[in-house]
């Protein structure tokens, strides 16, 4: 039997009422969305409702203006939340979202997948997928966390050197994080010859990160040695999980084993708080040192979990003229799963 779905824009208070029924991640939560929103890129919350009146899927994110060339985009930091795992219902909800975006004059939909496990890619009409895995430590699995001897050895080296790990939400430590992120970027550029933006999520910047800290949704873990701060790790947190968002380190940190010590500290912190899991986040592309970052996460006992972002083709003329060129580009990249536009 075919089911019709409609999309309704609601305020965040209405959207959050039944949020617990949908297995939401940290990046679906309005606390994150509101921090990333601005007057130019406002927050939007959508419920997708069946013809029986029940909410079957949910979206939270931004409407962003990408200028004359690309138009306005419906931007989700994490995937659409589905009540059911039935593929027909999921497809119906995605199609309803696509029609809604066209109806309100948007040119595209971008659904990322931060803190949102998707076991396999689905082919939804009008969308293509990109694989973007993350690393998790599941504290509720009952299995012991397998920490590598090499990580323990490096952490012990830092401890013997006199390193102390502290926690903070202060503006001073946040500013130090940005200095260390720039040092890390320069180090990777020198090593791999490829540049990147440490602020890898839309509207993530010092102002939005400060907002999260002020409201108690984030925390920084940092090292102190001889009065100097050599590593800062910025993490999102709620009552169930913690997420590795950013980390910056200098040469002294790497030479002393400080990142390993902070890594162990956060796992111990998560266990002491009774959290369900620690998400160590995504991995950079191979040409930016992804293999080394993957190894560091695996040494902490994290397991790679699949995730898939879903992006629509351009939805409206004249932007749709870009679709053939986009299709040819995607077919050359194995990270993307696509059929045709």
UniProtKB/TrEMBL annotation:
Pfam families in UniProt: Acetyltransf_6
Domain of life from the UniProt record: Bacteria
SUPFAM superfamilies for this protein: Acyl-CoA N-acyltransferases (Nat)
Segments forming domain BioF2-like acetyltransferase: 149-282
Gene3D superfamilies: 3.40.630.30
Protein known as: GNAT family N-acetyltransferase
